[in-house]
Predict the 3D structure of the following.
Amino acid sequence: MPDFELSLHNLASVLNERRQQDGVSLAKLRRWLKGVNIFEKAYIFVPIYYRLHWSLAVICIPAREDKIGPIILHLDSLGLHTSNIIFQNIRSFLKAEWEHLNQAGVPTHIPIEESIWKTLISNIETKKIEVPQQDNDYDCGLFVLYFMERFIKDAPPRLIMSDLDMFGKKWFRPAEASRLRDSIKTLLEKHFEDAKNKLDAIDS
């Protein structure tokens, strides 16, 4: 399992389809990243929210010895989001970050083979992933959370195209994702109970 503290970064921004018309605010995205070099990470989670639905994109940065470029995955538990538009937006973001880093020459701390790095944009692969589907119209957020949880558990240190066999409609049972609701409820109840106990201790 990869060291996710070092190799995983969750983009706080949400790249959604509407930005295909508005234009991706790349400068704002860079501010949100706060100096993080995304190409040093093994995986970058990009939650997608558009038209009352959540899906998940994952940017995968392979190991140098694999001699391939980034792989963008899209996981959608209802199939409502247009993968090609999401891929185009993320590709634009990666291109802008790639150009930004190249201003000072080829970076030295990038786990991508140098010849691949020089033509990075033409070496980006994309894949819409077949995943378990929710059986209602309101659990999409839970599925995105569970996609991330299972991905962290199941993913290799650096993913390549042959690793995509780990996915599929039998990756997990849909009920497992829906049960996250109870887990989150229990976690919040514990958090509020702990906070209440601290306040009571201060007042006593």
About this structure: The CA atoms of residues 142 and 178 lie 6 Å apart. Residues 16-24 have pLDDT under 50 and may be disordered. The radius of gyration is 19 Å.
